[in-house]
Structure formats: structure tokens, C-alpha cells
Amino acid sequence: MPASTNGSTHVTDLATDYLDIDSLLTEQELDLRTQVRRFVDDRIRPNINSWYEDAVFPQDLVKEMGSLGLLGMHLSGYDCGGRSAVEYGIAAMELEAGDSGIRTFVSVQGSLAMSAISKFGSEQHKQQWLPGMAAGELIGCFGLTEPTAGSDPAGMVTRAVRGKLGWVLNGAKRWIGLASIADVAIIWAKTDGGIRGFVVPTDTPGFSAVPISQKMSMRASIQCDITLENVQLPESAVLPGVVGLRGPFSCLNEARYGIMWGAMGAARDAYQSVLAYTHERIQFGKPIASFQLTQQKLVDMVLEIQKGTLVALQTGRLKDAGRLRPEQISFGKLNNVRQAIEICRSARTILGGNGITLEYSPLRHANNLESVRTYEGTDEVHTLIMGRAITGIPSFS
Fold first, then answer.
1. Could you tell me the residue ranges of all domains in the chain?
2. How many CB atoms within 10 Å of residue 216?
3. pLDDT tens-digit profile of 88-137?
């Protein structure tokens, strides 16, 4: 688009896609992006400030996202979308341009809870839960992290022991997304035979979930403490397809993959909001877009957004080709979230004092990304995963 002098339209084609990354996407991928972007523009942007300020998760959007095919969209069968990894990534990017909390819902529902059932569940599990979850009629959560076991899930203390009729679960989980509104929870617990996953309907006696309040991040989202007190489950509740941490790690890698795309969506939204602002804000008799230091900040944002998007796209192509290694997912999660936070913080400085209000998105995105930076593996964890991949020497223990 040619340059213009009309405020926020004063951008060039290089301002929106400097390296013409769109040319690397298929028509189907671009059509999906248009569809999700329209949903974000119509349903999320007009409301996100009030949701964030009031700490409200917009549960009425769940069935809408189901009808758009966004829930479990990368899974096949059982009314799931069967979309490619790249398509799922594009959807994650657009949703997080709206807010990290909305993209996190899609991730918890599809990449964690639904993936666990799809990958490791019985046929009964799949038929009972997946179609309803894909439609947004049922909500799932994924219970791995504990109050004393975050980056070290092997240190979990939740246990499942055999009882008269099946299994009995006792323990606690923390920072579990959606748990208070979920219909089903995938709970990981130690057993005498190793770590196993259990499909736990949340109305089972002894299961309780309490939202964590007073958050400074992810306010338009739900994270909970779960308590499990003598939760009685039938033998059929166990996920039969996996034993050990390979199970939850496989699901976490699905979520980490979506995060690398989503973080670039948040960064892009912060950049675009301040790019418009720099043409509208007049100081010393001219728009601040004409200042050298402002242009330097904008250029640095463009560099990292374009590089991060290419990282996500290449990772997605590898995933679709069946060639992606978990260590390569760590590259994208570590780089893209770290850079997205810096972009959002830099964008806030361009806004000056106005940037601390909800009128502008960068600080909201930056606050949300502090949570994204922590969950599904901290910077330190992904650094050590990459270090092991590079040197061949594990440093975790």
C-alpha cells in the first residue's frame, strides 16, 4: 500500500510484511488467517479491555470458536478439524494478537487436554469427549504442574493407587488453566507402575478447583488450584496409551509449538498499535514517527517480528513434514516469547504515559507474556534443552 498522510493509514507495504512472508503461505492458509482475524476484530478487540480489567474469561466465545473449527483443529477424526500444523499456528498468532488469554484457552483445550485423549486415550475416551470438546460444548483441562513441582514434573506428589473398584487419586495441582469451568480433567499422577494419565470428570466427588485471583497477568483467562481428595475412578479412567513423562511432554510440545506463533501475534499487535500512534502523536511540531530514536525502535520491532514469524513458519513446515524434533520447538518458544516481551515493552515506551492505560495494547500484551514465558517451560528450561541438543551433555541433574 502506498504511503499516506492520513494518521494511522500512513504505512507502507514494508511496514506490514517487510519480507513478503505472505508469499510463503498457501491460499488456504491465508483464507484461514482472514477468517480468524475477522473473528478477533469483531468479537475480541471491542471487549478485551473490559474483560482484562474485570478479570473475566469470555466463556460465551467457546462455542463460537468451536463452530470456527479452532478447538483441536490440528487433530483428526472425532469431529476435529484435521488442519495442518501451520494452519494451527496461524490461528494461534491471530488469536493472541487479540489476547494471550484467548489463545491460551485454545491451547489448553486442544493442544493439551484433547491431544492427551487423542494420542493416548481409549476409543471410549475419544468418542465420549472429543466431539463435544471440538464443538466447544465440553471444556477440558490438563493437570500436570503442582505447587512444589513446576519445571521438575518428575517431582510430583499426586498419587494414584488401586482401590476396590479401580483407582483412587490424592494430591494437588496448581496453575491449571480452565479447571473451574472444565467438564473433564486430564490428571497426571504417580503410580506403582510409573506416571500415568487419568481422565477425570470434574463432577467426580473429591475433585475441586478454585480460581487463582489477584493476577497481574492473563487476567482474561482462568488458572486454578486443583485439590484431589480420595477421587474414586474406574479402571477405564486411565489413559492406556502411555506410561511415564513422555505422555505429558508430548502434549506440552504441542502447546509450546502454538506459543511460538502466538507470541508473534502479540508482538505484531503491539507494533502496529504504536506505528499508528507515531504518526498521530505530534511533539515539537512534528509526528514522533520522524524522530530517529522512534524509527530505531520500530525497526528493531520489525526485525524481530519478521525473524520470529519465519522461525514459527519453518518449525510448522518441519512439523507438517514429520521431521520436527522437540529440541527445535524449544528454539521457537525461547526466542519468540523473549523477543515478544521486549517488543511490547519497547512499544510501551513510545506511548509514554499513555502506554500504561488499557487504551493501548502493548503493556497488556507484555504482562500476559510474562505468564507465557513461564508456562510450558521457562526460559531456563528451554535453554538447557537446547544446550543438551548442542553439546550432547544433559545439565538438568
1. 7-135, 140-237, 246-391
2. 9
3. 999 999 999 999 999 999 999 999 999 999 999 999 999 999 999 999 99
Residue with cell 524509527: 295
- Phi then psi for 164, rounded to 5 degrees? -65, -35
7-135 to CATH, choices 3.40.1410.10, 1.20.120.530, 3.10.180.10, 1.10.540.10 = 1.10.540.10
CATH architecture of 140-237: Beta Barrel (2.40)
Active-site hit among 29, 87, 254, 376: 376
> pLDDT-based confidence at 6, cuts 50/70/90?
very low
Q: Give tens-digit pLDDT for 155-208.
A: 999 999 998 889 999 999 999 999 999 999 999 999 999 999 999 999 999 999
SS in 3 state form for the chain?
Answer: CCCCCCHHHCCCHHHHCCCCHHHHCCHHHHHHHHHHHHHHHHHHCCCHHHHHHHCCCCCCHHHHHHHCCCCCCCCCCCCCCCCCHHHHHHHHHHHHHHCHHHHHHHHHHHHHHHHHHHHHCCHHHHHHHHHHHHHCCCCEEEECCECCECCCHHHCCCEEEECCCEEEEEEEEEEEECHHHCCEEEEEEEECCEEEEEEEECCCCCEEEEECCCCCCCCCCCEEEEEEEEEEEEHHHECCCCCCCHHHHHHHHHHHHHHHHHHHHHHHHHHHHHHHHHHHCEECCEEHHHCHHHHHHHHHHHHHHHHHHHHHHHHHHHHHCCCCCHHHHHHHHHHHHHHHHHHHHHHHHHHHHHHHCCCCCHHHHHHHHHHHHHCCCCHHHHHHHHHHHHHCCCCCC
342 noted as active-site residue: no
Are β-strands 207-211 and 194-201 bridged in parallel, bridged antiparallel, or unpaired?
Answer: unpaired
Mind listing the pLDDT tens digit for each residue in 254-297?
999 999 999 999 999 999 999 999 999 999 999 999 999 999 99
Its pTM surpasses 0.85: yes
pLDDT band at 330 (very low <50, low <70, confident <90, very high): very high
Q: Check residue 69 and give left, alpha or beta (phi > 0: left; psi -120 to 50: alpha).
A: left
Q: Is residue 235 over pLDDT 70?
A: yes
